[in-house]
Structure formats: C-alpha cells, structure tokens
Specification:
The protein is of the alpha+beta class. It has helices at about 1-10, 45-50, 70-125, and strands spanning about 15-20, 25-30, 35-40, 55-60, 65-70. The chain is about 55% helix and about 25% strand. Strands 3-2-1-4-5 form a 5-stranded antiparallel beta sheet. A hairpin with a 2-residue loop joins strand 4 and strand 5.
Length: about 130
Amino acid sequence: MEGYALENRKEGHLYLVTEDRHGKVYLWDFTEKTETEFLEDNLPSEVLQFATEGAMLQYKDGQYILYSPYGYDMLEDEEEEEKETEDAENLDDIENVEDVTDATDVRKDAEEEMDNQKEDFERDTDER
C-alpha cells in the first residue's frame, strides 16, 4: 500500500485528510479532485499530530505540511464558489437571451416601421 501512496504524492498538491485511524491516514487529492482516496501510512509522528480528519495537508519538498486545519471548510467554500460561478454563467446566458429578445424587438419595430412607410408611399402614389 505504501507504493500506492508514493504514486499519489505530488509536489505542491493539497490533500484533505478524510479519515485518521490508529496512525493510518487516508488522503484525498484536493488539487486534482480524484475519485478515490488513498492510505498514507508512512507519516512521521509530528505530522500525525496535525493530520486529523478534515485537515488540509500540502505535499512540499518531499514531506507533508499542515496547510489548514479547516479542510472541510475549504472544500465547502470551493463548492460554493463553483455554484456562484455556474449561477453567474447562467445569468450571462439569460442576459444574452434578453439581448437577443431586445434585438428581436428592435428588428420587429424596424420591420413594422418599414411596412408603415411602404403603405404610406403606396397610398401617396395611388392618390397621384
């Protein structure tokens, strides 16, 4: 299992501690948002002190350091930001639809005005 952990350690990546049990810590790659977590069972005791469930660790210079004790909050904040971004994109789509609707209304008004002018011209021509 240690080899598996070695494969998953990536310089600069953030890892969320999803579980800590009897010196065995399970990590989830917060940077890549992988589908699975992995067992990291070769942590020094000084890291185990802060590698508690919910903590965010960073793998830097070949070792884990505490990035934040509030990893779940970071995850939640990121999910909220993604939702806000999605909502903003949807709003942009709605505004684009409104722009198209406005443009359609302007086009219809212009066509109506042209029809009116054409009728006026034909009426004037018939009267002569």
